[in-house]
Amino acid sequence: MNQKDIAGKRCTSFISRIENGVSIPSLKNLKEWSGLLRTTSSELIGDQVLLDIAKGTILQPEKCQEYLQHLPENETTTFIKNLSASVRSVSTPVPEPPQDAELQYLTAQVYLKKGFPHKALDLTNQALQGGKHPITHIRLLYLSYRIYEILGESHKMQEASESLHSYLKEYSYNKIIQNLPDPETVTSYDVDLFKLSLIIKELDLN
Question: Which 3 state secondary structure label does DSSP give 26?
């Protein structure tokens, strides 16, 4: 069975984007594909869970590589593998990230870890221009705050803090609840937003 068989009426590039962690399938998509592949939805989302953990452990190369070795090789996993490897020593070059806000965020973290705050800041600002995922955007805003703190730029720190609080207000619990999609079309993106709204509510950040 190939991508065309699984995609059905959809473009095969949609499947490719999902494989590379760029697009997010809905619950309905997962149910359809699990039937075709004779597996379960939970089996299909397993790779995404491993990928998320690999991204989250980018500054711990051994742990990151441990999760990556259980994932199929593609553009995203190859980049993350090279990025985590660059954490080990200052002499290992940091790979150029693709035009993806989350991967740019991870790369900025590595630059900061390796002692290059200005490079981290440039990449963070670039990612903030193109990032659409709210959780990634929040991480980028907080990262910019940390970088300005390291650079001793108090005015910029204040601006980053204000931007962060202003952005958080857009994702209040009540707003997210009102806009939740039907169970059939819910995606992990919607779940992320819901979790974010719960955190904002519990921490009283609105």
Answer: strand
Tokens at residue 118, please? Answer: 């200005």
Q: Which domain holds residue 30?
A: 1-95
Kindly report the backbone phi and psi dihedral angles of residue 74, in degrees, each rounded to the nearest multiple of 5, phi listed first: -150, -175
CB 159 within 8 A of CB 141: no
Write out pLDDT tens, residues 95-128. 999 999 999 999 999 999 999 999 999 999 999 9
**Continuous H helices in the chain:** 3-7, 12-19, 27-36, 41-56, 61-68, 75-85, 101-113, 117-130, 134-151, 154-168, 173-178, 188-202
> Is residue 26 in a domain?
yes
Could you report the per-residue pLDDT of 40-76, keeping only the tens digit for each?
554 555 677 788 889 999 999 999 999 898 888 899 9
- For the record, the structure tokens of 158 come out as 């204040």
Q: Would the pTM of this model clear 0.90, i.e. be above it?
A: no
Instruction: Note whether residue 28 is domain-resident.
Output: yes
